[in-house]
Amino acid sequence: MSADAEPAPVSAKPPVTLREVAAAAGVSVATASKALNGQGRMTAETRERIRETARLLGFRPNSLAQSLLRKRSFTVGLLTNDTYGRFSLPLMAGVSDALVDNGVSVFLCNVEDDTRLGQLHVEAMLDKRVDGIIATGKRIDRHLPVDLSNLRVPVVYAFTQPDPGAVGLVSDDAGGARLAVEHFVRLGRRRITHVSGPESFAVVHARAEACREVLQEHGLPTAEPLLGAWSEAWGHEAVAKLFGKAGREGWPDAVFCGNDQIARGVIDALRERGIRVPEDVGVIGFDNWEIVAEATRPPLTSVDMNLASLGREAGLALLSLVGGRAAVPGIRKLPCRLVVRQSCGSPPE
Amino acid sequence: MSADAEPAPVSAKPPVTLREVAAAAGVSVATASKALNGQGRMTAETRERIRETARLLGFRPNSLAQSLLRKRSFTVGLLTNDTYGRFSLPLMAGVSDALVDNGVSVFLCNVEDDTRLGQLHVEAMLDKRVDGIIATGKRIDRHLPVDLSNLRVPVVYAFTQPDPGAVGLVSDDAGGARLAVEHFVRLGRRRITHVSGPESFAVVHARAEACREVLQEHGLPTAEPLLGAWSEAWGHEAVAKLFGKAGREGWPDAVFCGNDQIARGVIDALRERGIRVPEDVGVIGFDNWEIVAEATRPPLTSVDMNLASLGREAGLALLSLVGGRAAVPGIRKLPCRLVVRQSCGSPPE
DNA sequence: ACGATTTGGGAAAAGGTTTTCTCAGAGAGA
DNA sequence: TCTCTCTGAGAAAACCTTTTCCCAAATCGT
Questions:
Q1: Domain A18-61 in CATH: superfamily?
Q2: Which residues of chain A does B268 touch, with a Cβ-Cβ cutoff of 8 Å?
C-alpha cells in the first residue's frame, strides 16, 4: 500500500512567541521584548539582531497577553438597534476609520430593540474587556433598550439619545433644515412648504421649527408642516393635499421633505400631475440616501447628515475618553451639508 | 470654603477577580475556579458558598485570561467590502444570531476594496486571536482584495468568491430565477422576458440561463435577456426597448428583473405608458429589498436570497470548523424564496 | 486497629507579554 | 590598585484563569 498523503491540517502551527524569538536570537525574553518595543538599554547591534530575528520568524505579539497586562484591549463595541444599517453603517465606517489606525477593532452588536439581547451583548463585550462603547441607533430621540449608565468603561452616544451627563453626538437637524430652506430662498422660491415624518419624532419638530424661522427671517409666508410617515406613499398623499385644490396661484413652489423617500414620492406625484420639477416646484430631501437621491428624476438635492464624520468624531471622542482625558459631557451637534443635485433648479439671473 | 465634591471618576474600580472571590469565600483560587466551572470535587456546601460569593461580588471571569489559556477567544472577524451593507448587513445579522448564543462576538471590518486596509484589518484580527474569519462581499463572483488562503484560522466565505478548497456559501441564483419564472408560468404568463444587470456579473448569466431552461421546459418562447445596469434608469430603458415597438401582441406579459431597482424602473415606466401592472404585465424583482419592493406600485413580488439564513449557516459552519470538525469544502448553494406581493396578479380561475 | 481508598481542597504551572529589579562586568577617576 | 559609575542584559513578578498534580484527612474493609 502506498502511504496515504496526510490531509493538510486545518489549522497550521501555532503562532511564534516572544520566547521563541528570544531563544533564536540568543537572549532572554525580557531583552527581546525591550528590543522590539524600543525600551531598555542594549547595544544597537543586539537590538537590531533581535528585530531581524523577529522579522524572519514572522513574530507578532499576542494581543491577548498584551491586553491582559496593559488593561487595555484595543477593542471597542458598537451597539446599535438599526438592523438595516441605514444610519449605523455610514456611522460605523466613520468610527472604524477613526480607530483602525490606532489598531483598535470594533465589535458590531445589533440589539434589535431587545433588552435581553442588549444585555447579552453588553456583558459579552465587557467580559472581553472592550476599552469603550459607542451606542448608536436609528433615531436620536430614543434610548437603546439597554442601560449603559454605570459601566466601567467610557460610553459615547452617536445618533441616539445619550444618558444624562454622557457624551453625545448628533446631527444638527435644525441647521440642516436651515440649509435646505435658505437654498430655496436663495433660488427665489417664495411659497416653501415642509412635508415630514411622524409627529412623534423629535427631529420632525426641530426641522419644522427651523424651517419656520428661516421663512420668517425672510418675511416669507409660513404654513403648518404636513406630518405623516417616512414613506413614498406619504409623499404622494402630501402632494394630493398641497396641489389638489384648484387655483394654481396658491400652490407651493418648493417642498422641503423630511427624508428622501418622501421626496421621491413627492417628485413622482408631481410628475404624474404634470407639474415640472424643478421648473414649477423645487424639492429637497433629507438623509442624502444616494441610492434614492440619484434615482429620482431629476436627481434629488438633499441634506446630508455627515454620518461618517459623526462616526469619526464619536470614535475620536471615545479614544480620548479611553486615554483618560475627560471630554465635555452633553450633546454636541454636528453640522449637516447640502448636496445639490437637480431638483431645485438654478438661481435666477 | 466648602469641600469640593469629588468629580465622579470616569472609570469605576477595576473588575473583581477570581482571587478576590476566593479570598472572600476563604478558599484558594483553584477551588474557586473549580466551583464556578462545575469542575473538581468539593462539598456541595462549599461550591454553593463560593458561587454565592461570586454572585454577590458580581464576579465575571476575564475573557482575555481565559482566551490566553484556552487558545480560543470566542471572537470572529467579519470581513466585507460592501460599504453600504445592502448584502452584508442581513448576512451579519444572521452570523451574529448564530454566534451570540455561543458567547462569540463579531469584529466587523470593512475593507473597502483596499488591499492595504484589508491587510491591516486581517492582521489586527489575527493579533487579537480571532477564532475564525467570515469573508463576505457585495457580489459572489469576486474575491475580496485580500488573501485569506493560508491563515492559521479557519475561513468561511459567504456571498463572495471562495478560495479553492475553502468552504463557500452562496445563494442559489439559478434556483431563485426558476422560482420567479415558474411563478409566472403558473399564473398563465406566456411571453416572459428577463431584464438584468451588467454582463460582467456571474449571477446575471446564472439567472438568465435558469430562466431560459424553465421556459424551454414549458415549451414557451425564449428571447435573449436584456442586459444593462442594476439601476432604475435601466429599467426604464428596457421598457422602452421591449414595449416601444408597435404591435401590442408582440409585447411581453411578464418581466423578470435582475434586481428590485430595475423592477422599480420597469414598473414606473410601464405605468407611464399606461400599461397596467399586474393586469397587462407581471413583474418580479430580485433581492427583496423591502424598502424598494414595498414602495413600488403595486408592491413588488421579489426573490429573496435569504441572506440572514446564509449568515446563520456561515456562522455555524465556522463554529464547526473552529471546533475542529472538518467541513466539506466547496461551494454550497442555499435556496432562495419567492416573496409574493401584488405585481404578478392572481392565478387564472 | 491497620492498610487501602476516597474525599476535599490547595500548590503550582501554564498561557505570552511587559516591566521592575538586580547584577556582573567594563571603564573611569584617584 | 581600589572604588565609583555606567552599561548591557537577565530573573522574576505581574496580569487572570484553568488544570494537573499532590497531600492530608476521613472513610472503608477486614
A1: lambda repressor-like DNA-binding domains (1.10.260.40)
A2: 268
